[in-house]
Specification:
The complex is a heterodimer of chains A (204) and B (150). With 204 residues, chain A is α+β, with helices and mostly antiparallel strands. Chain A has three domains: 78 residues, Ubiquitin-like (UB roll) (Roll); 43 residues, no CATH class; 64 residues, no CATH class. Helices cover 30% and strands 17% of the residues of chain A. The longest helix of chain A has 15 residues. Chain A is globular. Chain B folds into two domains: 57 residues, no CATH class; 77 residues, Glutaredoxin. Chain B has a four-stranded mixed β-sheet, with helices on one face. In chain B, strand 3 and strand 4 form a beta hairpin. In chain B, helix 1 packs parallel to helix 3 and helix 6 packs across helix 7. Chain B is elongated, with a radius of gyration of 18 Å. Classes of the chains: A alpha+beta (204), B alpha+beta (150). The interface between A and B is small, with 14 and 8 residues.
């Protein structure tokens, strides 16, 4: 197991090969905000909030730290003026979808984001994919997935699987960064609009 | 579409999960749309979660999850066709078939779609029916062409 030394915010950090910049930073006690990261799941790089400045051989580039592997002599800046400006923009865009999410409100306060900058399209989902990936990778049930794309992309439960599995699990609800209610709402909708006629194990 | 046909297509791809899109495309071209039963069969045989199939089938415009008519009409709405009167061609087709873009009529005769460019702007306004291109359409010509496809 090879060890790699890199610099994060001026601090010398030791990391294992194959770690991401985000993991290295967290292990050194440096916090980077995330919405789509979960330690049990594969990195997704969906929310882009963990963006940092990475300097390699004098060249600075913006990278998403949750999917960027550590490398030797890397210099990372997690709070530069540019990074803060981008994060502020990302938060403002996400708040058009989920204006009252507590996690976003806290982040907005920290980065000075304006909650009402963009016109509201409150779908309450910011496409972090936590519920979808948790169901597929940890529970291996694949009861919830994404449908459609672009501005119409949303999560959708498969009624046949949901009727059997979800009632006793519901572990995706607390993962939701916007509100635990979003997944609950979509699940209820899936179960009501297509009543599972002969499946056992559903009490609804 | 019966299970045998679906099985035949899946067998052709040796039950390879990475051939999922090819399998879906073949079902789509043979059946004009993807029935839920067929997708469930594909999910079962290829060992791909149904959520993943649903994601892919809704992602690409080439796939349809609703039944399509026998004839697919595509009307070009690109800039060149637009300035040469594509809107009037579309209006004629809409009034003759009684359907709007994205819809299929009750007799399953026609499905109407608008597209952004068919790549033959010199022929504008262009209408494509079942892959056959009809160029330089006027509303009157449009009606004549459509009569051949009842």
């Amino acid at each position: 197991m090879s060890e790699i030394f890199l610099q994060i915010d001026g601090k010398e950090v030791k990391a294992r090969a194959g770690m991401t910049v985000l993991e290295a930073a967290r292990s050194a006690g440096i916090s980077i905000p995330t919405l789509c990261y979960h330690e049990k799941l594969e990195p997704f790089g969906g929310c882009r909030l963990c963006i940092v400045e990475a300097e390699v051989r004098g060249w600075t580039k913006l990278v998403v730290s949750c999917v960027y592997p550590v490398e030797k002599n890397l210099i990372v800046r997690t709070r530069s003026e540019k990074v803060d400006r981008i994060r502020k923009m990302i938060i403002e865009l996400l708040m058009a979808h989920a204006p009252d999410a507590f996690e976003l409100l806290d982040l907005a306060k920290e980065y000075g984001a304006d909650r009402d900058r963009f016109e509201k399209e409150a779908s309450f989902c910011i496409h972090c994919g936590l519920c979808v990936r948790y169901c597929a990778e940890v529970k291996k049930k694949n009861a919830v997935g994404f449908v459609d794309r672009g501005i119409r992309k949303e999560i959708s439960f498969i009624p046949e699987i949901a009727a059997k599995e979800c009632w006793n699990c519901k572990e995706c609800f607390p993962l939701c960064p916007t509100s635990a209610l979003q997944a609950a709402f979509v699940l209820t909708k899936a179960l009501i609009s297509h009543p599972p006629s002969f499946e056992s194990g559903s009490e609804c | 579409m019966d299970n045998d046909r679906v099985d035949h297509i899946i067998d052709k791809h040796q039950c390879e999960p990475s051939s999922l899109i090819q399998v879906l495309l073949e079902i789509q071209s043979e059946n004009k749309w993807l029935p839920k039963e067929a997708l469930e069969r594909v999910s079962e045989r290829l060992q791909v979660p149904f959520t993943r199939i649903q994601h892919i089938a809704t992602f690409y415009k080439a796939f349809s999850l609703v039944p399509k008519g026998r004839h697919g009409i595509h009307i070009c709405m690109g800039t060149a066709c637009h300035v040469r009167g594509a809107t009037r061609v579309l209006d004629t087709v809409e009034s003759l078939t009684g359907i709007k873009p994205g819809e299929t009529d009750l007799n399953m005769n026609f499905s109407l779609e608008t597209v952004n460019c068919l790549g033959c702007c010199a022929l504008g306004p262009v209408m494509e029916i079942d892959g056959k291109t009809h160029g330089k359409m006027s509303p009157a010509q449009t009606a004549d062409v459509l009569k051949n496809y009842e």
